[in-house]
Structure formats: structure tokens, C-alpha cells
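ARCHIVE CARD
SHELF: 3
SLOT: left
DATA:
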Amino acid sequence: MLHSLLNGFDIYKPSLLTVDGVMVVLFYFTVYSFLGWLLENSYNYLKKGVFLKPNFFLGPFKPMYGFAPLLLIYLIGKDMHWSLVLLLCFLIPTLVEYGSGLLLEKSFGRKWWDYSDQPFQIQGHICLTFSVYWVLLTLYSLTYIHPAIVAMYNMIAPVWVLIWPTVALYLLGEFIFAVKRHLPQAVIDGESTKLIE
């Protein structure tokens, strides 16, 4: 991992302007979202003895974990200095977590996680301890997990070409139904309501 950090991560960045590139990005997003769901539920099991915790989606996907690695893949360059890589590995997941937490709370009036009892936290959405964990997790992902995901994609690409539109529709449906399911009734009825701070 240290070798990759010092010598630069050579990460394939699929073009978002081609169908092939969109297929690859959707694959990365789906796999990372599933791994994030698995990670969070495993952590919940270790802390509380219960594997399944409340999720925004019904299915086994955490979109926040799909967006952060994709942003890092596109922002980290091969010749980027290790200190900038570390900074991005700290900032990107932290900003995605903060933005997700704030958006979910303001839109739906509830928190799916809360770091209020942690030191150096901001509005319960982020805290220094977990931001440091994200640095370690993203470095590990860039070094070991992402190359494995790329290899997996290369193996299943002929099948993925056939199923990716279905996966895209599924994720879109999950999002639409999640918004409808979690939207406060007062908003659905057109009433103005103060969301939980």
C-alpha cells in the first residue's frame, strides 16, 4: 500500500461520454455500494449484535459508498504527490458523508447515523475518528480492492453488457421508492414542516 501511495496510483478512468464508459462506472458504483452496505452491516453486527440496520434503500446498496470511490478514481492521478492523495482520501469520503447526512436529514427529517457523541464532530454527520478510518479504507481500496473490481469487470464484461440496463433501472427504482418511502407525510400532503435539526 505504501509503495502505491509513494509511486502513484495508476487507475483506469473510464470516459463518461461513451456507453462503454458508463457501463464500467455503473459496475464500479454498484460493487462499491454493495461493499459499503456489507461493511456498515458488519460493523453494526460487531457493535450491536444485529446485522441488518435501517437503510435508505431496501436492497443491499449504500450509494454514499459508491460515489466516494468514483470521485477518488477520477481525482487521483498517477503522478500526484502522496500528500495530496492522502488529503483527497480524507476530504472526499468526509465531504460525501457530510453532504449525504445533511441532505438526508434536511430532506427526510431523520438521521441514518449520528456521531454527536464523538469528539471533533460536526452536526453529528461527520467526526474526525471516522474521517481517519475513511483515509485508511480508501487507501486500502485503491491499492487492493479496486484492482480486484477491475479484474472482476474484465471477467464478466460480456454478461454485464446484457444486464447493466436492468441494474441501472433497479437502482433508479430503488432511489425513487426510497424517496417516496422516507418523505415525511407533511411534505407529501403539501404542508410546510420544520425538519429535525
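SLOT: right
DATA:
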Amino acid sequence: MSVYEFSAKTLMGEEKALADYKGNVLIIVNTASKCGFTPQFKELQELYDKYKDEGLEILGFPCNQFMNQDPGTDEDIQEFCQLNFGVSFQMFSKIDVNGKDAHPLYAYLASQKSGMLSKKIKWNFTKFLVDRQGEVIDRYAPQTSPAKMEDDIKKALQS
């Protein structure tokens, strides 16, 4: 099994198969518009701009499960991300990342790489790095700056 087995709805309401990203290195991240880590959108966009031509894709999944930090509609989220951070990478419709309603992709990701004390997603901006074969390489805590992932991203792109 790999991340390519899953699909999700984009902010534009279209079902998107993750198999469309086969052969790319992925950063999959649960996001929020009103979180202390929200400025990470800027670094994620910078990484995307720098490495997209080498095969990096970033997939953002808004989530409102942590202190209601993304209460807006998909349209609100898209506008916020574009206006405030110039986000041009793929953003998906809001999902749950934990619990009985967790999106199957996130249930899979959490089962592949645990956090410090549990498999559960602890907060917004938990990041997963996925190789070109769709296998999870690593999981990064919310407080880990996307820029600190750059060496790992470069290694994955060269594989």
C-alpha cells in the first residue's frame, strides 16, 4: 500500500487521486488558517517554488480539529492562503485527521510513522515526507520549520 491508493476533494470541489502525483516527492501537511504555525505556509511555498521543477509537490489539508483554528469554508481557506501567503501548491477540502471521521489518507499516514508518543496527529502543521514511490519517509512535528526539512527533501528528490 502507498499514498497513491487514496484520493481527496480539492478546495475547488474536484476529487483528486493521489496517484496523479506518482513519481513526485510529496510533503503532506494538515494546515489551519488561525494557528500559531500558520506562518509555515510561507516556508512551504518557498520550498515548493524552489523544488517543484525537480518533482516536489506539497499537498495541504485544512483541519479544524485543533481549537477551531480553521473554521472557514473551503472558499475562505483558499482566499486566505492565496492572499496572505501566495500559496500555489495543491490545497484540499477540510478534513479530520484523527478519530472515527479521520480521512483514510491520514489514518494511513499516522499508521506509517508515529509521532513522539503516539500515532495520533497532535496539532496543525504535522508534516509527512513521502518518496517518489509513495512511501512515507518521515514525519515532522508541527513546531519543525519546513525549512529544516530541506536536506531530507533534497535527498528524496535525488533518489
